Amino acid sequence: MELILEGIKKAFWLLVTFDPEVLGITWLSLRVSGLATFFSLFIGITLGTAVALTRFPGRRFVVSVINTGMGVPPVVVGLFVTIFLWRNGPLGFLELLYTPTAIILAQAVIATPIVAGISLASIQKIPEALRLQILALGATRIQMVWLLVKEARLPLLAAVMAGFGGVISEVGASIMVGGNIKGYSRVLTTATVMETGRGNFDVAIALSVILLLFTFIINAIFTSIQQRERPR
Amino acid sequence: MIKKILRSSFLAVFLFAAVCSAPAFAATAQKNLILATTTSTQDTGLLDTLIPIFEKKTGYFVKTIAVGSGQAMAMGSKGEADVLLVHSPAAEKKFMEEGNGLNRKLVMHNDFIIVGPPNDPAGIKGMKSAADALKQIASKGALFVSRGDNSGTHAKEKDIWKKAGINPEGQKFYQQTGLGMGQTLNVAAEKNGYTLTDRGTYLSLRKALGLDILVEGDKSLLNIYHVIEVNPAKFPKVNAAGAKAFSGFMVSKPTQDIIAKFGVDKYGSPLFFPDAGKPEFD
Questions:
Q1: Which CATH number is B210's domain given?
Q2: Contact residues on chain B for A88, CB-CB shorter than 8 A
Q3: Inter-residue contact B92 to B226 (CB < 8 Å)
């Protein structure tokens, strides 16, 4: 218990004294997970909407795959991304392994099914009649899809939060593809694992507190946007 | 259609991520040097001291991947690392025989110790032979926590069990963490177990642990670190020049002097003893 208090105190000090290393790690975490979430939104919403609005053979299978993807362990993603990015692997020529870009990539792969799954569910919940009405009013197909996405924006914000929360707290893939390199690809979670291994529990707790703090702030912002307009 | 969307969007993210963020985190190709090493060199903080000096001197950007010696050599034998700093001599020799490495050089040593709870339930304190100590731990059924991760420390531990004539695998007193040295020490401390550790990691964690040194000084407990360049003839993509530079740096006089002094101010005794240029221990 004393240790936790020490850790919180330490977190406070690291923040108010603008400790350059901790600030760098925090900023990298936010940047990497933010970008990863951004990419996953792009693909996930497209994919989720497409599956929600079309009927094709094997659709149920695709939905099951997406839903399974929502729970895929990050280390599994990390392992596969590592193998792909190896120098002698299929994407080795990109020279991305052990870079922050590799973490973005792995995290985007982790977050995409989460975003896709929630988008799928929320678009599907919009009554069929609305679609017909929009089309009947003369909208093009693209306009119709856009209106539906707008209609589902509140649950889609939940997708953003779930995706971001999933990747910023993820450690397995980040350490495998990023390598936890000091001042370069070290993020809050991988630094926490390392400091725990070094027995610096106060620093580890401080980093956890900082992680929780920033995740909370970001979620609070999204939540306030989401709750501003209550669905009927 | 779905397949098409999937494929094109994944391609898009790959390219987009590569194009957008690569320049932002600029680090040019041949300047990167992947150093695969053991957790002990990172957990003690030695590399945090040495790497910036090397980078400043040579302009290389070192990507230190701290894993067990076993995994470090596995990376080397796939050409996925440029240079290794490892401490598992038997495995290193095999690595060299398979033609994966070049210029294996002695860098430094410290020693392994057997640590355990201060009340010492198996009564091994002060024993002179590590093998006898493990025998006694086994016969008393006291908990022994093993790395279990093919690291250099794990390899050493298996050696000693062999010498003791015991196969601990699967026995009740024997637990494997599969974690690095620091975390394994934490597990041993938490569970009041014994473990084999390198002295450096133990000293750097000692204040948080509450484990005592019970057996030390046995000749079989030497912990020897070598630097190995990954063979560019076998793996054309490795950064051979960088590996050579790093290897040379590790055995150079100024670096060896830093190693000799590392940890003295903090722990009262050095964590590693420099050995460059000395004859091999075995």
A1: 3.40.190.10
A2: 78-80, 235, 237
A3: yes
ipTM > 0.90 for the complex: no
Q: Are A42 and B235 an interchain contact pair (Cβ–Cβ within 8 Å)?
A: no
Q: Nearest chain B residue to A49 by CA: give it.
A: B2
Q: Are B185 and A199 in contact (CB under 8 A)?
A: yes
**What is the rounded CA–CA span in Å between residue A67 and residue A70?**
5
b (16+ CB within 10 A) / e for B151-182? bbbbbbbbebbeebebebeeeebbbebebbbb
What torsion do the CA atoms of A170, A172, A173, A178 make, to the nearest 10 degrees?
Answer: 100
Segment A25-34, tens digit of pLDDT: 999 999 999 9
Within-domain flag for A169 = yes
Q: What is the pLDDT of residues B235-281, one digit of tens each?
A: 888 899 999 999 999 999 999 999 999 988 888 888 899 998 888 77
In total, how many domains does chain A have?
A: 1
Q: Report whether A32 contacts A191 (CB < 8 A).
A: no
Parallel, antiparallel or unpaired: strands B144-146 and B174-176: parallel
Assign residue B133 a region (left: φ > 0; alpha: ψ between -120 and 50; beta: otherwise): alpha
On chain A, the residues whose CB falls within 8 A of the CB of B207 are 199
d(CA B205, CA B191) in angstroms, rounded, equals: 16
- Whole-model pTM: value is 0.83
Specify the number of domains making up chain B.
Answer: 2
From B221, B249, B265, the end of a domain falls on B221
A197·B25 Cβ contact <8 A: no
Q: Which residues of A touch B198 (CB under 8 A)?
A: none
* Domain of A204, in residue numbers: 2-225
